[in-house]
Amino acid sequence: AVEDSIHFFYLNDLIGFLGGGGGVEEATETATTPTVRFAIFNVAEAWVFSFLPALLSDRRRLPVPAVLFAWLGGLGLTNAFLMPYLALREALASRGEEDESNEARKGGKNPLLGFLFGTTASAVAAYAVVSSLSAPSEQWTEFSELARSDRTYMAFCVDLVLFSVVQPLIIRRAECLEEKDDLPGLYNVPFIGMLAWLLGV
Questions:
Q1: Which UniProt keywords apply (predicted)?
Q2: Using CA atoms, how far apart are residues 136 and 159, in angstroms rounded to an integer?
Q3: Is residue 36 a contact partner of residue 141, using CB atoms and an 8 Å limit?
Q4: Around Cβ 74, how many Cβ atoms within 10 Å?
Q5: What is the pLDDT of residues 98-112, one digit of tens each?
Q6: Among 18, 37, 25, residue whose Cα is nearest residue 131
Q7: What is the pLDDT of residues 139-195, one digit of tens each?
Q8: CA-CA distance, 147 to 56, in Å (whole number)?
């Protein structure tokens, strides 16, 4: 997990490329680099990263420090922060719910923030996918075994499932949609739907 964190958003790789060195750690042989593991890790990080504009767009969100705390905790790829935040937000919103005009309830994102987060997450995910295509098939098998045998990676995979479940909820709250309101089908697609919402697709 520590090795994965060093390659967060491939920044170490970028530093090494620009500086002609290995960044935080010395460059390793391509054949021994766990490309698949790094790719899945960075796609997951990009997914959580993309949640912030939507969380901030929620008109019934908790105070900004609480939002940032939950989001930063989520970047640690743990649901120990994000899930309790969402549960507390729902509980407080239902208790303090009051009649509001449609205009007052109208949600939406900050276009600039959405663009910056959307393009960044898209670029990281695209690089991760492309890099994983050239990875040896054995690496996929190794990651599968790691997810079954290592509790850290097992929890990591569970988090991805939970992100898929809460993504539509997060977008609904950002748009102030009621349960009876339809959410565009694309926004229900894990991760891709989040990017589409950020980029206004």
A1: Membrane, Transmembrane, Transmembrane helix
A2: 26
A3: no
A4: 25
A5: 545 444 444 557 899
A6: 37
A7: 999 989 988 898 888 887 888 899 999 999 999 999 888 777 889 999 999 999 999
A8: 32
Q: What is the largest CA-CA distance in the chain?
A: 61
| C-beta of residue 168 within 8 angstroms of C-beta of residue 158 | no
Token digits for 1? 């997990």
Q: Look at the block and give the residue holding tokens 């890790």.
A: 41
What is the C-alpha to C-alpha distance for residues 78 and 49, in angstroms, rounded to an integer? 13
Amino acid at 158: V
Tokens representing 126 are: 């695209």
- Which structure tokens are listed for 158? 């569970």
Q: Which two tokens stand for residue 130?
A: 């492309």
Residues in the chain, overall count:
201
**How many Cβ atoms are within 10 Å of 71's Cβ, its own excluded?**
18
